[in-house]
Amino acid sequence: MMSNQSGNQTNSEKKNGGCLRQGAYFFMIIFFLVASVIGIVVIVGAVRVGQGVQRVSEAIDPVGDFVRQLVVPVTPEILPSSAFVLRGIQDESRLITLEAQYRETFIGRRNDETLWGLLGEKLIFEAYGTVVVGVDLAQMAEGDLLVVAPDTVWVRLPEAEIFDDLPVLDTELSYVADRDTGLLTRADPELETEVRRVAEREILAIAAESDLLNRANTNAQAELKKIIEALGFTNVVFFDDEFPPVTPYAQPVPKGYTVSTPEAP
């Protein structure tokens, strides 16, 4: 009797153990299913969030582009210094703008009225000379040139002058056309030398009294204008006296633009 009860108890325990294992398996399956569903939901949600962010970014980009189109950077204009431009035109200190040729006849005499000319001398000298006129750019100071805009320069030139330190007489063309000496004297070489000096002074005086200097001033402005334009300027204004008051240059910036310094690549 007791043996039968023990067997029944053993069978009952086996059945209970099997049920527990089946229940555990069932719950494990349910857990994995729920976890899988949650994982799928999370992945789908992340994908949708990413798509949403992309859509928002795409929606914002046109706005940013529009704003960038409203504010366009402009490279700032930098005025060259007046000293830099002045050095550029003073490569040659003298700006020769005009040369004039002259031919004059001069007569030299010595003792030609003494003893009926027996101790006298007379010569006729044909003088050919060239007078060189221009502007001495070395006389210009920084205050005589002013850069007022990227394309505009104001200039005050020195007055044109005759470069009298240059030779005037053409020694190859000039000559003694005639010479007479008295019976009681010989030719004096100092007379010809003096006539040459007088000829040079007279030719310079004739040039100074003519309109040569006015023409040289006009030519100087035209020549200097070309030199300054070669430096990149398009508007060269000449003044005879002091410069008028000048307003500091302000770069014009169109609406929707801003001045910015370009970054180095």
Task: Give a structural overview.
The structure is a single chain. By secondary structure, the chain is α/β, with parallel strands linked by helices. It has two domains: 1-73; 82-244, no CATH class. The protein is 44% helix and 23% strand. The protein has four helices and nine strands. The strands form three sheets. Strands 2, 3, 6 and 7 form a four-stranded antiparallel β-sheet that branches. The protein has a three-stranded mixed β-sheet with strand order 4-5-8, covered by helices on one side. Strands 1-9 form a two-stranded parallel ribbon. A hairpin with a 2-residue loop joins strand 4 and strand 5 (152-155). The longest helix has 69 residues, at 2-70. It is rod-shaped and about 170 Å long.
Offer a concise description of the structure.
This protein is α/β, with parallel strands linked by helices and 265 residues long. The protein has helices at residues 2-70, 82-89, 189-209, 212-230; strands at residues 72-74, 94-110, 121-136, 145-149, 152-155, 161-162, 175-181, 235-238, 257-259.
Radius of gyration: 53 Å
For the record, give the distance between the C-alpha atoms at the N and C termini, rounded to a whole number.
Answer: 103 Å
- The helix content is 40-55%
Order of helices and strands: HEHEEEEEEHHEE
In percent terms, what proportion of residues is strand? 15-25%
Q: How many structural domains in the coordinates?
A: 2
> Which term fits the overall shape?
rod-shaped
Q: How confident overall, as mean pLDDT? A: 76
pLDDT < 50 stretches: 1-10, 257-265
Structural class: alpha/beta
